[in-house]
Design brief:
By secondary structure, the protein is α+β, with helices and mostly antiparallel strands.
């Protein structure tokens, strides 16, 4: 070799070393992990960042594999990532982990590029990592927040459902209580008949219908004779039994369209729809006979009752006027010695 050719080779070699030195300085200055491996995936270069990250001895790592350099918890995943990058044959991206000297876990997004010789044979692997710990933590925090939010939404939905069920249940209870209160406000609790308020209200409707349709109705008032003697002799419990049994007799012997009620202590009233005075007197007699023939209460007491009857007349001013005539007829029945029915027509 001529001297001139030798000097050219020396110059080219010097330039190549200088270029390699510059390239190494460049890689050493990169703030992200950088590494190179040969065709057997053994380390040939690692910049200070990655060497410091894994606490690798910078003077004793070339020619070694991951399982010889990295902690066991990270070595196998890194080696598997390398194998997948080689198999893919082009640039690939993976996520890898490492602990810094203080023990904090870092996450890295690693790009790996396989290289090939002139014959197309695999010749090595170059990798560059990017610390994504902050992004990962933010992502995990967001996922945790989303999970917590979903859990809260489920809890809120459950709470809303529970509250809705409680409101629905309480509403039903209130409706039932309202219905019960309404019922109690119109029903005599002892006998189950209409109380005075309900009897008058319903009877006024009948009176209005009679005037509009030009039809009639009758009203009777029944009063149990000498009822005070029952209470004085047998007690109020016995008196209550007499009232309840009398109410049952009245209800059982009337039509479903008739309106019966307890309007006083031992006084019952009935409004008979589309009924004449004569028909009402007959009904009153039947009721009085049935009551007189019935043994009531635990003492098998037999009682009689007096009954006053009147009927609607177009010239009557109101239901109360018709009822007043029935009440006058009742007093006449009592004055006749009780245990009888008296009817009183409109004058």
């Amino acid at each position: 070799m001529k001297r001139e050719e030798y000097e050219v080779l020396l110059e080219e070699n010097r330039k190549l070393k200088h270029l390699i030195g510059q390239f190494k300085n460049l890689l050493d200055s990169i703030p992200d992990p950088v590494f190179m491996k040969d065709e057997n995936l053994r380390w040939i270069y690692g910049n200070p960042v990655i060497l410091n990250l894994y606490s690798i001895d910078p003077d004793n790592y070339v020619g070694k594999t991951e399982d010889q350099l990295l902690p066991e918890e990270f070595a196998e995943s890194c080696m598997e990532s390398d194998r997948q990058a080689v198999a893919k044959g082009t640039i690939s991206k993976s996520e890898e982990r490492a602990r810094d000297p203080e023990g904090k876990l870092h996450f890295y997004e690693v790009f790996k590029v396989p290289s090939y010789d002139r014959n197309g044979a695999f010749s090595g692997l170059i990798g560059v990592g990017r610390d994504i710990t902050a992004r990962k933590e933010a992502q995990e925090a967001l996922e945790a927040e989303n999970k917590k939010r979903k859990e809260n939404e489920i809890k809120l939905a459950h709470l809303a459902k529970t509250l809705e069920d409680q409101v629905r249940k309480r509403t039903a209870e209130l409706e039932a209580e309202k219905a019960s209160a309404m019922s109690l406000s119109y029903i005599d609790t002892l006998t189950g008949l209409n109380n005075r308020r309900a009897f008058f209200g319903k009877s006024r409707v009948i009176d209005t219908n009679a005037r509009n349709r030009d039809c009639g109705y009758a009203v009777m008032i029944l009063d149990i004779d000498y009822f005070k003697q029952v209470n004085d002799t047998y007690g109020h419990a016995m008196g209550d039994s007499v009232l309840k049994e009398s109410a049952e007799i009245i209800k059982e012997n009337l039509r479903i369209t008739d309106i019966e009620g307890r309007v006083g202590g031992e006084e019952f009233a009935v409004t008979l729809i589309d009924t004449t005075l004569e028909q009402a007197v007959d009904i009153g007699k039947k009721l009085c006979e049935t009551i007189a023939a019935t043994s009531m209460g635990s003492e098998n007491v037999k009682l009689t009752c007096s009954c006053g009857v009147s009927s609607y007349h177009p010239e009557s001013e109101s239901f109360e006027e018709v009822l007043q005539r029935a009440d006058e007829a009742l007093y006449e029945a009592k004055s006749f010695g009780r245990n009888c029915v008296v009817g009183k027509a409109f004058n």
